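Please review the protein record below. Let me know how this chain folds according to its tokens.
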Amino acid sequence: MADELRMRRVLAHIESNLPLWDQNNWVVETSCGTAYCYAGWTVVLEGIPVHTNVDGLPYVDRRTLPQPWLDRLEALDLAYLADGEYHVGVSDMAALILGLYDDGRERDKWHLFGACLGLDGLRQAIDWLCTGRRG
């Protein structure tokens, strides 16, 4: 089942730190610090670092994951091999954290992670994912 508490915690963090939210980029350095999209903040707020490869693409290093997440990740076979190490996409890691893989809603992750979403869109997506109601 989707983890409503985590979804709303990420939204509250974004609302309180708007200069560090950039829905168009997974992770980007700004004059205010490191900004993340909703998926990026989901991962970072769990204490999991987001890295970027030599091409500037973000990923989660499988070796940095706490055991409960690692076990779930491996059960779903979400890691991919890159540069001799196993990486996880930021959106896959965020969907796992938010419980979207638990209830078969991983295909709906783009309702939260889409680049065109504003705050109202995020609020509506969370309501829809958690209750089935569209705003």
Notes: The first helix runs from residue 4 to 16.
